[in-house]
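Tutorial sheet, problem 5. The four components below are modelled jointly, 1500 residues in total.
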Amino acid sequence: MLPKISAFALLCGLFCALFAHDHGQRKIVFPDVPGYYTLKCDFHQHTVFSDGNVWPNIRVQEGLRDGLDAISVTDHIEYQPHLADIPHPDRNRSYEIAAKAAEGTELLVVRGAEITRGMPPGHCNAIFVEDVNKLMVEDPMEAFREAKKQGAFTFWNHPNWIAHRSDGIATLTDMHRTLIAEGLINGIEVVNEDTYSEEALRIGLDNNLTLMGTSDIHGLIDWDYNVPAGGHRPVTLVFAKERTFEAIREGLLAGRTVVWFNNTLVGREAYLKPLLVSSLSVSAGKALTNRDGATTVFEFEIENSSDANLIVENLSDFTLHQHANILVFPAHEKTRIQIKPRERKAVFQMKLTVLNAITAPDQHPELVLDLRLGE
Amino acid sequence: MLPKISAFALLCGLFCALFAHDHGQRKIVFPDVPGYYTLKCDFHQHTVFSDGNVWPNIRVQEGLRDGLDAISVTDHIEYQPHLADIPHPDRNRSYEIAAKAAEGTELLVVRGAEITRGMPPGHCNAIFVEDVNKLMVEDPMEAFREAKKQGAFTFWNHPNWIAHRSDGIATLTDMHRTLIAEGLINGIEVVNEDTYSEEALRIGLDNNLTLMGTSDIHGLIDWDYNVPAGGHRPVTLVFAKERTFEAIREGLLAGRTVVWFNNTLVGREAYLKPLLVSSLSVSAGKALTNRDGATTVFEFEIENSSDANLIVENLSDFTLHQHANILVFPAHEKTRIQIKPRERKAVFQMKLTVLNAITAPDQHPELVLDLRLGE
Amino acid sequence: MLPKISAFALLCGLFCALFAHDHGQRKIVFPDVPGYYTLKCDFHQHTVFSDGNVWPNIRVQEGLRDGLDAISVTDHIEYQPHLADIPHPDRNRSYEIAAKAAEGTELLVVRGAEITRGMPPGHCNAIFVEDVNKLMVEDPMEAFREAKKQGAFTFWNHPNWIAHRSDGIATLTDMHRTLIAEGLINGIEVVNEDTYSEEALRIGLDNNLTLMGTSDIHGLIDWDYNVPAGGHRPVTLVFAKERTFEAIREGLLAGRTVVWFNNTLVGREAYLKPLLVSSLSVSAGKALTNRDGATTVFEFEIENSSDANLIVENLSDFTLHQHANILVFPAHEKTRIQIKPRERKAVFQMKLTVLNAITAPDQHPELVLDLRLGE
Amino acid sequence: MLPKISAFALLCGLFCALFAHDHGQRKIVFPDVPGYYTLKCDFHQHTVFSDGNVWPNIRVQEGLRDGLDAISVTDHIEYQPHLADIPHPDRNRSYEIAAKAAEGTELLVVRGAEITRGMPPGHCNAIFVEDVNKLMVEDPMEAFREAKKQGAFTFWNHPNWIAHRSDGIATLTDMHRTLIAEGLINGIEVVNEDTYSEEALRIGLDNNLTLMGTSDIHGLIDWDYNVPAGGHRPVTLVFAKERTFEAIREGLLAGRTVVWFNNTLVGREAYLKPLLVSSLSVSAGKALTNRDGATTVFEFEIENSSDANLIVENLSDFTLHQHANILVFPAHEKTRIQIKPRERKAVFQMKLTVLNAITAPDQHPELVLDLRLGE
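Model answer (C-alpha cells):
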C-alpha cells in the first residue's frame, strides 16, 4: 500500500501548494516601507451590474482571499449587457452591495465606475466618486469634470488595448493631453489583465501620471489568473500614510504606486527602491574557515520577505563563491551567499541591480546592501 | 514537456490516491457500465436569479471544468432576495441564459427550479419541466401536479436539513407519503452539499425513490468544495442509454443512479456493483520465482479507472504476500498484489468488499475478480 | 516565472511534498503511550561489510533522517560477497563504525548480526550481543546459545521468504519449536521489506513471540521505499520505559511492539490500542444551531497525531451528518465530524474499529472515544 | 502540521520555479546540437575505496537515475581513510566494480583517479587512464607524465578550494603554468560541488583549458543536491561525435564542454550558443485580431526543451505585449509571447541575451530567434 502513503505525502504537498492558497498562502504579501503602509489594491473590476459574471459580494470575497486592502467595482455606466434582467437605473448599486458585503472586514471598498467611450479618450475609471449616476452625461469632458468635482481619482484604462490601437502601442491624443493638462486624468494603466505596456509606462513617466495595474476582471480571479497554481492578479501597491480611504486617495493622487504583475514590479524609482530595500534583510555574516583558521570568504543569508522572486545582477567589487553574476532571491526564502572580497572588513557593500523590477523602459533599480559580519 | 507531464500524471495518480483530484485533473471520471453511459450530473444549483452569487454562465463553466454531462440551475421560484435588482418576472431566465452559454459545448442544461416550501414537504426540485412560471401556484400539491403534468422528475432536497429537522434525521411525513404514492416525488437527496443522510438512504430504498447527490451550490464550486486541493462537488451518476436529455430523464425515473461525494459511492447494488466491476481491470498474472523455479506466489496488477480510492477488504480463501486484509486501490492507478493460494490454478477468484461503497446503511457491495495467469 | 504557467507551478506544487520530506516531514512520527516512550526502530540492515552497498555511516544518517530512535546493522556473518576487498576478520567492524558515526546524536546503535543458515531454521538476527565473532560457530544451535549467553534478543527473519518457502506461507518446523521452547528465538518478522505475513503473525501470537517489522535494507532507504514520494521503511515501534539500550531490550523481550509498514499497523491489542488512543484527540464539541436555536446535531474535531491515515468504521449508536460508516482520519490532520444522537448529552461515546490496524489475522481493534461538549 | 507544510509548499514552489526537476523526471535533459551528441557526464566522484561512503555500484545507479551518459569514480590514490578495512592494493578496484555494475546499461564508466597533492599543484583528476596503480609515484610531475603516457585527460580540481586558497580566488602558480605548457593539465573545474569560480573560468579561457563541472560526491547525490526537491548535481556537458569512450575523450581534449550547475550554464560561446539555440523552438505565429480584423500584434509560442529555466533579456527592436524586457522561458515549457513590431512581416527577429548563461566573467551569449508567421 505504498502508493497510498505516497499519495498522502503528495496530497500534503499539493494540499499546501494549492489549497494552501485558501489558507493564507494566496494572499499577496509585500512589506511596508519607511513612512508608508504598502496597500494592495485592485481598482478595476466588473460584476453582473455591467458585463461581469458575478454578484458584487464575490469580488469582496476574492479580495479578502487575495489579502487586498482596497478594491473598487467599476462597472461600465454606458455598457449594460444585462439590462434586460437588471434594469436598475442606479449605477451606485454594485458599489453599495459590495460595500455591504465588506462590512466587518478589513477590506476597503471604493466607490467607482468605468466611463466607457470610443477613442479618444477610450476607457477610463473614476474612483473615489460620490455619485456614479451623475457621471452619466453626454459629453466626455463633462463626465471627467463631474468626476473631478466629486473628488475622483481618474485613470486611463488599457491604453494599449488592440481594440483601440491595432498596433498595441499606447499613444497620447490631443484630447488626452487636454485631459491631463486639466488634471482630469490622474493615472494610466501600465498593466491591464495579462498585458503590459512599456509605451504606457513612458507616457506615465513623461506626463506625471500615477502608474496603475489592474485585473479588469469579468469572470473569476481564480480561473483567469491561475491562482490555484500560484498565479496572482495584477495589483497596484499604494504607499499610504494610513489604512484609510482618504490616505489611499492621497497616495494615488501623489503618484506613490508600484505595479505588481506576474513576477515583475513596475514603478518610479522613488517608490520601487524603498520597497525592494524593505524586502531584503541580511543576517550577520561569518567567515568560512579552513585548517589555518578564518578565510576571507564570508557567508551571509539574505531573506526576501516579498512575493517577488527577485532576479538580481551582482555589480559588487567582489565575486561570489557559489553564484555567477546573475542570481535569484526567491520569494519568502533565505538565500545563502558567500562573497570573496580578498580581505576582511566589518561591512561589505553588495551592489546589485534587480532585473525584474522596472523604473523606466529597460531600466532597473540599483541597490546597495550592507553585509555586516557578526561578533 | 511530455516527460514532465507523465511524471506529473504519475505523481497526481499518487496524490489522487487519497482524496480525489488535483487541480490539473479536476474532471470527474468514472467508466461507463455495460448497456449504459455513466453520466455525471449536478441537478441542484443556484444563481443570482435566486439566492446564488453568480451569473448562470459561471455554472456552465464550472460544469465544463468538472467534466459534467448535465446540470440544472434550479433557482427558487418563491425566494428572490435579489428581486430589487433583478425584478424579471420570468422564472425561466436563469435556465435560458445557462442554456445559451452552453451552446456549442457537450454540456446538457436541464430546465428546472426549486419549489421552496415550509415543512412539510420542505424543499423539492423539479427538473425537465417546460415552463417554470407555471409552477408558481399557492397550493404545494398543485405545484407538484403541474410539474408532473410537464413531465418533470421531482426530488426531495436535503431531508436531513437541520432548519427543518433539528435532529438532522430524515423522516417521512404523511404529506410525503401522499406525494410519493401519487408519483409526485420521484427522488430523494441522500447527499446535499457537505451532508450525507443514512436515514434518507433508508427512506429512498424503502420507497423506491431515486437516490440523488447534489452540490446545492450558491457561491463558487472551487471554493466550497476545495477543488484546488483535490476536492470535488457531490454528483449524481446517471446510467443512461444515450447522452440525451430524454435518456437522462428516463434513467432518473428508472432510479438508475449512484451518488459520488468525498471518497464515497452510494447506490443500489444493481447499479453500484457494475460501476465498481467496470472500474477494476486485472492484468495477466505471473508466478514469482525462486532458485527452484516457479513458486505458488502469484503477482497481478489491478487497475482502478475510477476517481474513487477504493478501500477494500480481502475475503478470498488466500492471503496476500504484501498486504493485510484491508487495502486500497488508489484512483487511476495500478496496484500490484501478490497472492498466496498454496497451489497453481489458471484462474483465481478474488472476493472482496468495497468498504467506501454503500448499498444500504452499513452495507457494502461484494465483488469477485477473476485473476488469470498469463501464458 | 512561477505565476505564469500553471502546469509549471503545479509541478512545483508536487515537489513540495518531496521537498518537505527532505526537511523534517520524512521523520516517522507516533505519539508516546501511557507509561512508555514509543521508540521507532529498524533492527535489520546491511552494509558493505556483508552484502549491502553503503558504508555503515550512511545507515546512521538514514536513521537520523527518518527520525529513528534505534537501529542495528546486522551484517551476515557467514555471507561476505565483498570479502576480496574487505577481508577484515572482525565481524564487529560495521557496528563499531556505525556506533562511532552516531556519536553525539540521539540515535542508538545496537550491536547485532544476521545468522544466515539454511532451512531450518533459516535466517535469524541476534541483537544486543557483546561480540559478533563468537557467533561464528558450526552448529546453529550453538550459535543461538552463544547469542543468548551474551544476552541477545533473537528473531526469525522473513519466515515467508519464497527462497525458503515456495508457497510464501510461514510455517514452524520442529527445530523452530525447540529454539522457541529454549528461549533461543524471541521474535518473528511479520513484515520484512515489502512483504507482510499473516501466517507469521499467527505464529507470533500463538508462540508468544515479539512481533517485528524491518527494512532488511541493502541499497538506499530513499530508493527502496520511495521516501521522496512519501514512502517510509517498515519499523518496529518498541514501547520502552526509557530511551536506553537496556529499556529497548527489555521492551523487546517483553513483546511490547507494534509494526508500522505502508499504511498498516500490526500489533497485540494490549499495545496497539493505547497507541491508537494516544494518536486521537477530540476537541470540545458544540451543537449546530438553526433558527429555533440549538439542534441535536453536534460537531467535534478529531486530531490524528500519528503518521497513519486511520481508516475507521463507525459502530456508534448514532449516525454521522457528513460521513457514511467508513471514514478516514488523515495523518497529522484534524477531521471534523458531526454526530446525530437525537438527544443532547454531556458526553457521547464514539465506538469505532480501526480497519488498517491488525491485532490478529482479520481482527481490528475497537476503540471508544469520549466526545465532550464544551461549555 | 498543515500550516507548517504549507509554508514548505510556498518555499518549495518557488524553489522549484528556479530549479525545475521533479522526482519522476530527475533525469538531466539537454538537447543534442548540430554535429554532436550532448553527453551528460560527471567525472569526479568517490566511493568507499577512498573517502566516499558508498560501494561503487551505487555511483552507477545514481548516474543511471540522473540520466548521465558517462561517469568516473576517481578515488584518491594517496588518501585512503578506510585502509584498515579495505587494504586492497589495487587502485583500479573501484573502477572495476563500477564497470561491472554498469554492464548491460547505457552508462559509460571511465577509468580514473584523483591525484591528491599539496599546493602546488593541489588536486587533479586523471581520467581515461589504463592503470591507476602506475600513477602512484613520488614526484607529482612524474605522475602527470605517466597519466599522459596512458592517454589521460587531466584536470585541476576546485582551484578555488579554501583549504588551498584562503581567499577562494583561483590563481595559477608557475608549476601550473609548466603543467599546462607541457599539456599535462587539460582542464579546470569552474564548478566543484556547490562552488563556482569566476576566476577559474578566466584562467580556463586564457589558457585554453577545458571547462569542467563535477559533483565531487562523497555521500549520496540525492541528499547533497536535494534531488527530491528538484535539485541536480553539477555536470559537464560534453559535445561528442558518438556515444563512445573515445568520442568523449576527444571532445574533452578539444574543449567542447558546457557546465550545468544550479540554474546556470557556463561554457565557451562556440558551444553554449548552439546548445541554447537547440533548446529553443518557436511555433508558427499568428496576428491577434480586433473588430477591424488583423492587428500588428503577433503571438508565438517558444518551447524550451532544456532543463534550464532560461532568464532572458529582450533586445529586439520591438516591445512585448505581455512582458517587460526581462522574462523567463521555464524548462520544458512552452512560453507564449506577443510582440508589437508596428508592422506585419513574414519573419521577425527576436534578439535576446540569456542572462543565466555565462561565456566569460559577466558575459552572456546573445541569440537571434526567427519568429515566423504561419500561413
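Marking note: Residues 1-24 of chain A have pLDDT under 50 and may be disordered. Full credit if you identified this.
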